[in-house]
Amino acid sequence: MIHKLYEAISQAVPRNIILALLVLATGHSMAWDAAATEGSLVGNRPYSEAISGSLHPVKVITQRDIELSGIKRVTDLLGRRAFNNFGLQRPLVLGSGRALTLVNGRRVSDSGVDLDAIPIAAVQRIEIFSDSTSALHGGEAIGGTINIILKKDYEGLDIQLNAGRPRGEGADSEHLSALWGTSVGEGNLTVGLDIFRRDEVRDADRDYSRARYEAGGSFADTEGVSSLGNTVFVKKNDGGSVSGPLGDCDESVYTGELTDPPGGFFGTVCGFAYADIAWHLWRRQNDSAFVNFSYPLADAAEIYVEGRVTKEERRLLYAPDPNLFRLAPDETLRNSLIESGNFEGLDESNFPERITVGHRFLGHGNRQWDSDLEEYDIALGLQGDIKGNIRYDGYVHYNRWDYGEDGRTFINEPIINAAIESGDYNLQNPLSDDERHRAAITESSVRSEEKGKTEYVDAGVELDGPLFELMGNKIRWSAGLQIAKEDISFSEENFNLSGEPVDADDVLGGSSLSLTADRRRLSASGDILVPLGDALDVSFALRHDDFDDVGGAFSHRIATLYRVIPNIALRASWSGGARAPGLALLHAEEFVYYPYVCDADTPTPDCPSEQVRVVTSSNPELKPDEAESFGAGVSAGWGPFSADFDWFRLRLQGTPTTLSTQFVVSLERSGRLSEYPGLSVTRSDGRLAEIRNPLTNSGETDMDGFTARLGGDLKTDLANFMLNANWIRITNYERRVGVEAQPGDIPRNRIHVLLRADRNDLSMQWNTHAVTSFWNSTRTKRFRKWVGHDIALNWRNAFGFNWFELTGGVLNIGNEGQSRPGLDEDHVLYTDSILGRTLFLTAKFEI
């Protein structure tokens, strides 16, 4: 449940492992002045000027874009990557595994960046480099780079108050920010404060996730209901299967009896409406402060200090733990089940010695996770010019990221099983007040404790300047050198209520991970831009990263830009890069998790799923993977209008990965496990018991597609209109382990259209964003298409006060919810799909 870890390794292993493993990425380089040269029309700049600059085209999310979006967290702003409202750029489509995020042109750490720790009040703009920047920033940036620029050189006082109110219950939010800046001699001091609060969203608060059932109705017609309330499942001697309630299935606690049990059983089940309790959006609060200080030391030199500190608290709640286990009923329970009449065809002569029970441990209480995060980031640097030609930037940077999470209440499986066998635990009534029963609950209760820490120190210098003149234009160059060291640690432990440690294998559905590792890196990069006349530019860039544990990684890039006529340009690029495997993939102890799988050769939509224990171990022999990117495009402008079309191809080879769990089951059932060394499946009584799924450099990913954009900036007597319409199409996507294609899919089409009108002190903005339908992870069901609309109004100099500004609007006007292909899955397209229709209002006071 660690966001930073999730961002770091989303491409390496199944989603279940993502939340617990750490990755150490490669490379760093200072961002160029490309921020000042947009690769296509974003604001009011002429398109002919935009295409005449850098060969690293960049789209810019401006401060005004951010304010009109109504979004008050950087994670949510960039989390709209499913649509990417601000240009559908490839870094946001390819995902964090192959796109790098920088802050002020620098890595926050080699493990990635926790966007929750960046206060949105500190953000001046966000630059999205849509082409590969691996030769500048390392192989991790083969899909592009996102550079978050923080505010500096501000003078005055800016206070903003924001409130968001969804149509449904929950997720009410408040945001307060204050920015103050002043001159200090010839320098500047800018400080800021950012406070954000948002309530949780409960499953019961949304139509698409709340529990639906009728007592006495069919289980097949329910939603948000589990058959593991208190149900007995019995396999008869004649091969038939029958189920029925364990106890009276009180409707004030359970759903009552439901017909049509899952899994081909005959009879009824005693269900439990877990969606009446569970949350699916954390309750959170973030408090941040930041400072930027700069002071000139001479005419051509400036010292700067940048600092951030963030504290975050979150809470998540789930229903009590369920379990499916086998037991030998004592005589009392056996007679009670026979006399209930719920198990047709069974009597004292043929009732089996062992039964399977699906039970919800209600007496132990709800499961709850409380997490705390603190991040400290500081940089000290010196930048300037040498003889007015060569620019330099030298810096030292430190980042510390601390994470802790306490979870409760979980179950010690051996202890609760023993209490069930002895009769101390009342299986028929988990809410019993009997002293022996309450003692069994106390003795079997478990809490979890996760701790993570990353410390990152780096120092570097960047230089750039002109060389000599060629064909009437200056050749320009840049070079950089960086050293970095990172120490990471992570542990997940379990304790009983007396504070004594509990083995993770004894915890129902438990997982474990322990990691202590460090890495040192030395990186050097260089780039040269050669203008061949006024029409053709060629760029060559190289980078080498030397790691003290996995050796070297090399990246390159060749790019060209040809101006056919002043308003039409062609471009092409070829890039390659290698990314070092993460420290967790190299050094972590075995990681255990419990995904749901279908025990069938080929899964079908109605195939029942069950949890299975999966063990993944690290691999100290992993090597850097390889990536290659190709791109070609055309840009054109005519009057106030502009258009872009870009084709891209991405190839990843040798990525650290595991087979999908469902695919492993299919291999085992077809007798092909021996084709994959280290892969194993263990069964108990014919049921899946454990899967061992090792990490290897066997992953491959192919992605091809194109992006198209139409823009306009039209000035009329009525108003100034701005249009930005984007479409990205994925024509080919395949992920393989070895030569075997893996299940899974991504949206093949994403569309975003933005229309803005400005007149005097008023602005209105309309957003439409959509994705087409796509398969779930097992290709058994499809997520439906998703279309959302937003509107925002901005009033500058409100009520005649030049220091007052109001911005308000409605996000997700159509109240579009999540797309859910099945009861056991959901796909959070982005936060708006959870919040539903949301009203927001921001008051800005600027003095």
Short characterization:
The chain has about 850 residues and is mainly beta. It is about 10% helix and about 50% strand. A hairpin with a 5-residue loop joins strand 9 and strand 10.
Describe this structure in words.
- It is a single chain.
- By secondary structure, this protein is mainly β.
- It has two domains: about 725 residues, Maltoporin, Chain A, CATH 2.40.170; about 90 residues, no CATH class.
- The chain is about 10% helix and about 50% strand.
- It has a 22-stranded antiparallel β-barrel. Strands 11-12-10-9-17-16 form a six-stranded mixed sheet, with no helix packed on it. Strands 1-3-4-2 form a four-stranded mixed sheet.
- It starts with a helix and ends with a strand.
- The N terminus is likely disordered.
